[in-house]
Amino acid sequence: MALRKTFLFMDTITNKVDAKGRVSLPSDYRAIVKELSTEIVCYRSLTSPCIEGCLEDLLDKLATDMENSLDFFSQTQDDLTNLIFGDAKRFAFDSTGRIVLTEKLLKHAQITDTAVFVGKGRKFQIWNPENWEKEEARIRAEVLKNRPSLAPKENAQ
Amino acid sequence: MALRKTFLFMDTITNKVDAKGRVSLPSDYRAIVKELSTEIVCYRSLTSPCIEGCLEDLLDKLATDMENSLDFFSQTQDDLTNLIFGDAKRFAFDSTGRIVLTEKLLKHAQITDTAVFVGKGRKFQIWNPENWEKEEARIRAEVLKNRPSLAPKENAQ
DNA sequence: TTATATAACATGGGAAAATATGGTATGCAA
DNA sequence: TTGCATACCATATTTTCCCATGTTATATAA
Fold first, then answer.
1. Which parts of chain B fold into alpha helices (H)?
2. Ranges of chain B with pLDDT below 70
3. pTM metric for this prediction
4. What residues of chain B, 31 to 50, have a C-beta less than 8 Å from chain A?
5. Handedness of CA B108, B112, B116, B122 (dihedral sign)
6. What are phi and psi of B19, to 5 degrees?
7. pLDDT tens digits along A34-89
8. Do B59 and A121 count as a contact with CB atoms less than 8 A apart?
9. Backbone torsions φ then ψ of A32, nearest 5 degrees
10. Which residue in B131, B132, B127, B98 sits closest to B115, CA to CA?
11. If residue A85 lies in a helix (H) or strand (E), which one and from where to where?
């Protein structure tokens, strides 16, 4: 393990996807990946119409956690991890910083010519622009409603 | 983890924002950042028309806490990470001490050519001057009303 | 205290580097 | 050969870096 500085995927970046499925990984993301590895892992989100990406470390950690607490997890969650590992695939980026997304992933996320990268800390997601717009609105409404501790004031002006 | 002296963002400083979105981070703030890191993280405040900034540690801790919750598939956790990390972005300052704020952040805070930095301890905020003037007045009024113990005398200032 | 010198800071402009993205060539397999 | 996937090259744009200058703060000496 290298110096465990903080490596977090952040920000929301929109990039173009060409006819070959090529898309530039945001440079901030690339910097993180280069620091710890050479490639990322992507898979279809289990819960949303989007692609999820992370470093292989994270999936390794997931596997370990599952091993160490089998009783703790429900059969359902066990099944879900099977789905993830069955679906996940490594993606290396070329000298210009692009990865080539597969038909399967693009279809799941309904992405055609534009992709939105959304940071999630140790992970990130890739969305169709319209879908992300809706999703972000939904989340903001949800969080403000159910997590008032994050929004102490009514709302200023 | 350097010597855990007290590192608090304080004071209120007004600086100019140029056409490129560049603005000098107050030198006091810079001194704090340099002590622990090389860059800051900024994001749109959830509750106010302003930008919030902090050190990356704060967000890293959040990411770790969420990982350790063993709740890999939690919907709430999912929403929160999207909202927080999707909006946050790292900003390094150049040799002259400036950062380049993004359109998104500037728009949210209604900042055009002038920015007011307001210390908040572990965090700080960046405001449009007029908005901050109003907000400060509102806060003072609020505090005097709800926390009379803090204002033993007739009125300060 | 006042005046002057010195250092630190804020800010504007332009050059250099990095990034995103389209196109072309190359290699492999059907 | 043809189709497909990967690697390489070219360029417009964006971002970052560097230098110059005015301003403010600090220190020193009269």
1. 27-36, 56-68, 75-87, 103-108, 129-146
2. 1-5, 69-73, 147-157
3. 0.88
4. 41, 46-49
5. positive
6. -65, -25
7. 988 889 999 999 899 999 999 999 999 888 877 776 555 567 667 778 888 999 99
8. yes
9. -65, -45
10. B127
11. helix A75-87
